[in-house]
Write a structure and sequence with these properties.
Length: about 160
């Protein structure tokens, strides 16, 4: 039974991280910490961005939860930290690998669900290269959950290619 509870804690923590990430992206990264996130929206040739600093915002609580969870005899905090870490791994693979092409084999996917995530993020960046760019015009702040229209778009494009 304890394995089910721990698995449940991991899954719930993972899923809640999407809400946390959405809220942080919308109100913090596009809010008072815009000066750190801005370089993610402006094309450049750098390997690293100031935006990469945000990884610490998620790594530190995850690490602390796992550390204190182990110190407390592997209690719920450990499994919350694991859920957050797994979300971070998925974020890296999806956002950096698939969407921004930092991992080449992921950026060539034909999977319509993964492409929907990519299209949602492309919509988020659609105004970034325009001279009159305003961060307020951005849409789609999620990473793993994007509006249904992007799934429909991916499905349509996949069907067009198979005809």
């Amino acid at each position: 039974m304890i394995y089910l509870v721990n698995t449940f804690i991991i899954i719930v923590s993972f899923l809640l991280m999407e809400a946390v990430a959405w809220l942080m992206h919308r109100y913090i990264m596009h809010g008072f910490l815009w000066y750190l996130h801005k370089d993610h929206h402006i094309p450049h040739e750098h390997k690293l961005e100031k935006n990469d600093f945000f990884v610490l915002i998620f790594v530190i609580p995850s690490w602390l939860l796992m550390m204190f969870g182990v110190m407390a005899g592997c209690d719920y905090k450990l499994y919350m930290g694991i859920g957050i870490t797994l979300y971070g791994v998925c974020y890296f693979l999806i956002h950096d690998g698939l969407i921004h092409g930092r991992i080449k084999f992921l950026s060539k996917t034909k999977n319509s669900k993964l492409l929907a995530l990519k299209y949602g993020h492309i919509a988020h960046h659609q105004h970034s290269t325009k001279p009159d760019y305003k961060k307020e015009n951005d849409v789609c702040y999620g990473m793993l959950w994007v509006p249904l229209k992007y799934f429909m778009m991916a499905k349509e494009k996949k069907e067009q290619k198979s005809v």
